[in-house]
Each structure stands twice: as structure tokens, then as C-alpha cells.
Amino acid sequence: MRELTYYVGVSLDGFIAAPDGDFSAFPVEGDHMQALLHEFTDTIPAHVQRLVGLEADRSRFDTVVMGWQTYTPALREGIDSPYPHLRQVIATRQPREVPAGIELTDDPVATVRALRREPGTGVYLAGGGAIAGALVDEIDRLQLKVYPVLLGDGVPLFRGLGYRPLPFRRVSSRPFASGMVLNEYVRS
Ligand SMILES: NC(=O)c1ccc[n+]([C@@H]2O[C@H](COP(=O)([O-])OP(=O)(O)OC[C@H]3O[C@@H](n4cnc5c(N)ncnc54)[C@H](OP(=O)(O)O)[C@@H]3O)[C@@H](O)[C@H]2O)c1
User: Fold this and answer.
1) H or E element in which residue 34 lies
2) Would residue 162 count as lying in a domain?
3) CA-CA 20 to 30 A from 36: which of 21, 28, 64, 185?
4) Which domain holds residue 83?
């Protein structure tokens, strides 16, 4: 069974974006960027790969799953297929028009369970908080890019979870001079 990994940038107080979706409070400069670009190239949108001269090889992830609200901001920039190097699955309960090659699901739990039984490398859960909340029981691994900033309010790491402790085991914790700490956990 391959793994579902939620790889996401998060503030010290557990938010992945501002209330309006902005995440410019998370720095894109500093020594953490080299590690993220080179070790997580599969998670870099294709237009950014071209800008920085990298090419994803699907060795870490070959599939991305995201919620509709994570997919739509790029549409405003004219990007309707952000990860063409991956199989792209988008969760929505609405009938939506998407380009050929992008798959929609109204049952992300069933879709992820089916994906995990298929051969391949990892499945990248890109977020946001709502789809992460829906898929919380399917997540095998967390890769949390914890940025040294408080947002005070915003999009939570997981939406819609009531109080229900779910233990994870820390695998690694990598501090960067920039202040970002990459924390990796697996479900215990
Ligand atoms: N910091 C980071 O690394 C990072 C990463 C990813 C996203 N983000 C931010 O997170 C924000 C989006 O997060 P969000 O929580 O608002 O939304 P989201 O999880 O991206 O998308 C929510 C939408 O996904 C669909 N959905 C969610 N659960 C579903 C289910 N169980 N079945 C079927 N469809 C389901 C619904 O789409 P319909 O309404 O179409 O039915 C829902 O409105 C954005 O601002 C984005 O920038 C940040």
C-alpha cells in the first residue's frame, strides 16, 4: 500500500493561509527553499519548475489530491493544470469543468483508498484544510513546513475536526537558518 502524505506549510498557530487564502506570510526565500525545491520537486507546480530549472521525476509522489479551493486560485493566473507531471485528483461536490487529464471526485476517502492500492510512488495531499479534514483518517505521513510566524486567524491545517486525539510519531525534525522547521510524522 502506498502512502498518503499531507505536505503543507503551516504557521506556529496551525494555519495554512490567511482567511482570504493569502499565504505570503510564509517566506519563499532562505535556506529551506533549496531543500524543498530539490527534495520535494514533485510537489512544485510545473510553471515554477520551469522558472527554477528543475524537473520532477515522480520518485516521491506520482499523484496529487487537493480540494477545489486549493485548485482554484491558480485559475486566476491562467493555470488550470498545475501538476501535469502527476495524476491530479480534485475533490468537489459540484459538477465542474476541468481540463482533460484532471480527475474529479465527490468521495475523496474512497478515491484515496483505491489510489493507495494501486502501484506507484506516494500520493501527495496538497490541502487545503477541508480536504485534509475529510481525509484525516487516511493520512499516513505529515510533512509540516512550520514557519516562525503567528497568523492569528486563517485556514486551519484541518477543518471540521472535533476534539479527537490522533497520535503521530515524529520521524525527523529539520531546522533551517531561515526559521522554518520541517517536521515529519507518521501515524503511530
Ligand atoms: N500553506 C500551504 O501549503 C497550503 C496548501 C494548500 C492549500 N492552502 C490554502 O488553503 C486554502 C484552501 O483550503 P480550504 O480548507 O478552504 O479548501 P480546500 O480543502 O482546498 O477545498 C475545499 C473544497 O473541496 C471540496 N471538498 C472538501 N471536502 C470534500 C469532500 N469530503 N467531498 C467532496 N468534496 C470535498 C469542496 O469543493 P466544492 O465546494 O467544489 O464542493 C470544498 O469546498 C487556500 O487558501 C489555499 O491557499 C495552503
Assistant:
1) helix 32-39
2) no
3) 21
4) 1-7+61-99+119-157
Q: Could you identify the atom of ligand 1 that is nearest to the CA of residue 133?
A: 28
CB atoms within 10 A of CB 19: 11
In a domain, 89, yes or no: yes
pLDDT of amino acid 134: 98
Give the confidence band of 96 by pLDDT, cuts at 50, 70, 90. Answer: very high
Distance 130 CA to ligand 1 centre (A): 5
| C-alpha dihedral sign at 49, 55, 60, 63 | positive
Give residue 94 CA to ligand 1 midpoint distance, Å: 13
d(CA 141, CA 93): 26
pLDDT in tens, 51-95: 999 999 999 999 999 999 999 999 999 999 999 999 999 999 999
Q: Is residue 33 part of a domain?
A: no
Q: Would the CB of 139 count as within 6 Å of ligand 1?
A: no
Tell me how many domains the chain contains.
1
Atom 21 in ligand 1: residue holding the nearest Cα: 67
